[in-house]
What we know:
Elements: H1 24-31, H2 34-39, H3 41-54, H4 58-65, H5 78-111
Helix pairs in contact: 1-3
Amino acid sequence: xxxxxxxxxPFGKHKGEPLASLGTSHIMWLxxxxxxxxxxxxxxxxxxxxxxxxxxxLQTVADELTPxxxxxxxxxxxxxxxxQHQLQAMTEPLRQQIAAIRAAKRAxxxxxxxxxxx
Length: 118
């Protein structure tokens, strides 16, 4: 396994900074993120090694950080969520019109009792 003492962050605001320069709570927060744990396994090992030096009971932390379920097949980005919201907002008036037409058809069908057919 590679030397983890000189590990630098490969992502985010602190990209390129040594892991040792981050605060303990920040390392713990990063390790608690499912996407980080699944995308950067080397970071997980380096973060746990760093926490081992800082904390006395690493097994408790490791147990809390073990992922229980695999990540979803595809993460949605903020841009994708915004586009979905805009599409829903654009189509909402059309959905309301369709619902009104269906309600009118149901009302007309319910009014027809068939007595004028004889």
